[in-house]
Amino acid sequence: MPDPAPSGSGGIGRASAFLASGTIVSRILGFVKVIVLAAIIGQFGAAADTFAIANQLPNTIYVIVAGGILTAVLVPQIVRASLHADGGTAYINKLLTLALVVLFATTLIATLLAPTITGFIGLNLPQNEKALAVAFAYWCLPQMFFYGLYTLLGEVLNARKSFGPFTWVPVLNNLVAIIGLIVFATLFSPDPFGARSAAEITSAMVAVLGGSATLGVITQAVVLFYFWRRIGLHYRPDFHFRGVGLGAAGKMASWTFGMLLLTTFAGIVETQVVTLAHGEASVAVLATAWLIFMLPHSVITVSVATAYFTRMSEHAALGSWSLVRTDASSAIRGTSLVIVLAAAVIAVCAYPFAAIFVTPFDQVQSIGNVIIAFILGLVPFCVLFVLQRTFYALGDTRTPFFFTLFQVVLLICAVLACAWLPTEWIAVGIAASITVTGTLQAILAAILLRRRMHGIDGRRILRSLVKYLVAVIIPVAAGLTLTTLLGGNVDGGFAVSSRLTAMVSMVLIGVVMSAAYFGLLLVMRSGELTAFLAPLQRRFGR
């Protein structure tokens, strides 16, 4: 990473690389899972949309109750608690006990209210499909508790600088889910075009599909206890919550809770509007395009920012604001170096990427257009992620609430306007709305952080971003030319004719664009690229 603080720079690089490697393996298996799922129930139709709604429910409710709260609060508070005489053990046990009680109660209530919650989110679905979504929801909603357990255990490990398990154990989740899909395909006939009606989907099909998805999440969470023991942590339930500073954590959590309510409400509006496109690009298509959008973000930005987040929290706890500023700048410039290229490659390869999941060219176009609309907002989304983590490291969850409120108000207005678009363009309109409002949110967050810290190294960050964007122009032109030559935008073209040809085309286009991009940055003498390549030069120079 460029210009990290002198101490621990090697540790940041190693931690980021280990996090990224786990995320890459997990994401590859995640794509395999989506490909297998598309081959079994399709990306369009009753089964695809109802399962997508039900399988998103645990995440949706979990995010409201605990998801971002745990990330925003746990690491900074545990880092501060580690200065206590017991190394923070009492604090961790009390915080974990309280969080698990809240998670269990919420999961139980949500499962009992499955018909009401599912009916509200799938407001525009036909009645028989609503009933199917409820059946899936009963199997999927228990995932909430185990998502929370995974986040709790994983963030404690991150705070203790044991970074690997948090990104590697989702590999097990995906493996279990893929095995479940294979069992489904063995027991029942696949329906890759989504022709099976809601009435034809049996309770056994629902149990295998929903049950295997939940079993994967359970496995992902429980395995982390093993890694706790490896670093000397042993969880003992402790219901004596007074006297260890949970009040500060609660104050931070309240603002984050409000922020998550806002984003979840926006997500519900998105789902309700996109279900108007039932039979066209709808819930499942939006979810698949978002998965592709999140690939470079989770591999690169999350891996780097997670490692930096712990260090920023340490520097903030010591009052070293200049080091926090340096960490944030390094994280933004280092991640953007690769994220700009990743966004460009995915945008150029959007149709071949879509062809990995579906075969009919009209469906390829539908998914590809949504991918393009999403991916244009990847760079600001990743910058925003680092900015948010910087606020959290400073113990400030109030400011992120307000710049999220700004984004949510704009987004809801834009998404509601998308209801008047032709049905085949609703999902594209929603994705574009998220991109535009997310970009404005990132700009506002940068302005507010600059005021909070009296500077964020903005000129250097802006210079680097402009340099990356200039360097990617020629690679994009080369990639578009190559995509056209490979027939990536016409029905029956080589790049979209099968999964194999799509993957071959993407690799070829990606290699050409990457070589051109990094070559131009070398000519431009990019300091960030030099820092990025330094570890490789040291390793191969031995």
Q: Can you give me a brief rundown of this structure?
A:
With 542 residues, the chain is an all-alpha fold.
Describe the structure.
The chain is mainly alpha-helical. The chain has a domain at 16-244. Helix content is 79%, strand content 0%. It is built from 22 helices and no strands. It has helices at 9-41, 46-81, 89-112, 114-121, 127-140, 143-159, 164-168, 170-187, 203-222, 224-230, 246-274, 283-317, 321-348, 350-355, 361-375, 378-393, 398-418, 426-453, 458-471, 473-485, 499-523, 527-540. Helix 11 packs parallel to helix 17. The radius of gyration is 23 Å and the shape is globular. The chain starts with 8 loop residues before the first helix and ends with a helix. Mean pLDDT is 82; it is low at 1-8.
